[in-house]
Amino acid sequence: MLSSPWARFYSNSCCLCCHVRTGTIILGVWYLIINLVVLLILLSALTDPDQYHLTSAELGGEFEFMDDANMCIATAISLLMILICAMATYGAYKQHAAWIIPFFCYQIFDFALNTLVAISVLVYPSTIQDYLRQLPTNFPYKEEIMSVNPTCLVVIILLFISIILAFKGYLISCVWNCYRYINGRNNSDVLVYITTNDTAVLLPPYDDPVNGAAKDPPPPYVSA
User: Fold this and answer.
1) Tens of pLDDT along 34-58?
2) Beta bridge mates, 54
3) What is the dihedral of CA 140, 52, 27, 112, to 10 degrees?
């Protein structure tokens, strides 16, 4: 029987030899904690704007950093991310495959954005120097970074982005395998694997006929 070429990438285990459900739950909780911390920082910045407000003179540019409009947009995005991460965690825990789809779509979108950044750095390497010049004068290690050879700087940045893309791609595959696993368990025509104490038991398909002798029909009714 021929299988799909994507089936070779399917696995029930992920990093640290844990199950894909466990890995997806850990990943969802990790993203949830990060976005909660970001939300707390944004809310504290909204309540005390002077603490996080940087003027254009401090940035050395003609714009302001994190004004009220940007703060509200960032807060809304953080709330949306918290909802998506909570849905993925709940879906993996309760084995609801549809709840994992928004988080998987976010991962694809994030991977696409990082890929576009890598392509832009490869096609337009001069943009790195332009970006470094726009940084504030008090930015840490700005002068040291600008003194590096432009070609070496591009190679380092591309290598760093490639490592990030490889890691993000692996996390995407873990979430996708978790979705396939849960979707397969919830489907009546897919074999169900029950793992207990590192022992896999293969259950027969639901519609398999039950082997056994057929019962004799009851005798016909005869009136007295």
Assistant:
1) 999 999 988 887 777 666 555 544 4
2) 65
3) -70
**What pLDDT is recorded for position 53?**
56
Torsion of the alpha carbons at 70, 76, 81 and 83, rounded to the nearest 10:
170
For 119-150, the pLDDT digits (tens) are: 888 888 788 878 877 777 777 777 887 888 88
Report helix, strand or coil for 49. helix
pTM of this structure = 0.68
Closest residue by Cα to residue 37 from 5, 85, 2, 70: 85
Which residue ranges of the chain lie beneath pLDDT 50? Answer: 1-9, 56-64, 188-201, 206, 212-213
Q: Which amino acid makes up residue 165?
A: L
Q: Mind spelling out the 3-state secondary structure of 128-190?
A: HHHHHHHCCCCCCCHHHHHCCCHHHHHHHHHHHHHHHHHHHHHHHHHHHHHHHHHHHHCCCCC
Residues 59, 34 contacting (CB under 8 angstroms)? no
DSSP string, 97-128: GGGGHHHHHHHHHHHHHHHHHHHHHHH-THHH
Contacts within 8 Å (CB) and 24+ apart, 36-40: 36/82, 38/74, 38/78, 39/75, 39/78, 39/79, 39/82
Q: Which helix (H) or strand (E) segment is 84 a member of?
A: helix 68-94
CB 23 within 8 A of CB 100: no
